[in-house]
């Protein structure tokens, strides 16, 4: 004989989520603040939205945007290649390699990127000539530093070498985060060292590596605005050249902000897809 459950006593089935009054209050405050922000942006004549629309697709602005994106990508490529190498040095059992990797990270994370950009741009002061040859021996090839270190070269070196120090720590943290038992299990199945790294260690490490690496790319993208100090026509330099003639400072800065927002938003969408790809099979 079974007894039917009383529907009124089944609290779990009839439970309803209750929103505290504090949540409603916070929501109302946020709604009011959002409305004030929209009113400020739309009805403040100082923004001069007609000027923003006029210069949003200005050819010089688009060229500056292209330069900004290319610089960010080049700096990230240099940073990833060099940063991965430095991370391997820091994880090496050979002490001099660990010391060299630690020294690199310490030095380049301690010096501001703007200082590094100016330093590389003025490298010709320390090295008038750059040559290849035997150490303390004959030189095979020689170049003038002023011809070799152009604003583009200085920008890629300054941003890329600085970024390598941060990416080295990100990659190292990702590799350390993989449990050593995973590698032991792969070896017991007959995997070689390379197969273990690329099929077992790296896919799991990427779950840790991708989010901060994406944040670093965004940081580099915004940091390209520093190259304007070495007279390189990036996005910020392009809008500065325009408002230097028209004196419409705020609308042109809004143009720059709009393009930065668009590029960062598009990259963030790609980053989310990449994170979902490497998070397959992981419970959250």
TrEMBL record:
The keyword Iron-sulfur does not apply. The keyword Cytoplasm does not apply. CDD domains: TM_PBP2. Its main location: membrane. It is a multi-pass membrane protein. The chain crosses the membrane at residues 21-42, 62-89, 110-128, 249-270. It is found in: Cell membrane. Residues 65-268 form the ABC transmembrane type-1 domain. It comes from the Bacteria. Keywords: Amino-acid transport, Cell membrane, Membrane, Transmembrane, Transmembrane helix, Transport. One of its GO terms (biological process) is amino acid transport. GO terms for cellular component: ATP-binding cassette (ABC) transporter complex. One of its GO terms (molecular function) is transmembrane transporter activity. SUPFAM superfamilies: MetI-like. Belongs to the binding-protein-dependent transport system permease family. This is Amino acid ABC transporter permease. It comes from Cryptosporangium phraense.
């Amino acid at each position: 004989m079974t007894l039917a459950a009383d529907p009124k006593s089944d609290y779990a089935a009839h439970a309803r989520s209750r929103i505290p009054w504090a949540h409603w209050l916070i929501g109302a405050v946020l709604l009011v603040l959002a409305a004030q922000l929209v009113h400020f942006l739309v009805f403040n004549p100082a923004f001069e939205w007609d000027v923003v629309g006029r210069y949003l697709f200005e050819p010089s602005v688009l060229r500056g945007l292209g330069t900004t994106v290319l610089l960010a990508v080049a700096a990230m490529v240099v940073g990833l290649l060099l940063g991965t190498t430095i991370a391997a040095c820091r994880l090496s059992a050979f002490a001099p390699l660990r010391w060299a990797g630690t020294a690199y990270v310490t030095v380049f994370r301690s010096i501001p990127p703007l200082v590094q950009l100016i330093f590389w741009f003025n490298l010709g002061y320390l090295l008038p000539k750059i040559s290849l040859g035997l150490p303390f021996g004959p030189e095979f090839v020689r170049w003038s530093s002023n011809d070799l270190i152009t604003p583009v070269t200085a920008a890629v070196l300054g941003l890329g070498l600085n970024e390598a120090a941060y990416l080295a720590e990100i990659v190292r943290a990702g590799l350390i985060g993989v449990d050593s038992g995973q590698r032991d299990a792969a070896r017991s199945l007959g995997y070689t060292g390379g197969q273990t790294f690329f099929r077992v260690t790296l896919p799991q490490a990427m779950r840790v590596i991708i989010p901060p690496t994406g944040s670093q790319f965004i940081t580099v993208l915004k940091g390209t605005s520093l190259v304007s100090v070495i007279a390189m026509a990036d996005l910020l330099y392009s809008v500065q050249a325009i408002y230097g003639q028209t004196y419409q400072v705020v609308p042109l800065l809004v143009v720059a902000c709009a393009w930065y927002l668009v590029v960062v938003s598009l990259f963030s969408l790609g980053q989310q897809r990449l994170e979902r790809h490497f998070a397959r099979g992981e419970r959250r």
